[in-house]
Amino acid sequence: EVQLVESGGGLVQPGGSLRLSCAASGFMFSSYHMSWLRQAPGKGLEWITTISMTGTTAYADSVKGRFTITRDNAKNTLYLEMNSLRPDDTAVYYCNANFPGRAYWGQGTQVTVSS
Fold this sequence. Notes:
This protein is an all-beta fold.
């Protein structure tokens, strides 16, 4: 059974940091491009970052310089280090695994940035 399980979300003050994790199982993690997306209240799904199977990264302008995506293929785990968090980063964060013809999603983890 394919599973993507996000964790690490929570409530943080503006300017703070959080580290999200996404534990993968049931598929060959190292062969998939992995991404983080988010959905803010009342808004659509927003792509924020991708790390390819070879480790190449890309970021949306909204998070560039503040967020860092990494992966540990030995642990089948994807990470998102989030720094300098702002209230507009408040959203449910999802991890996504992508391979030609296949895509898997986690259930999401809530991140709330508020004082």
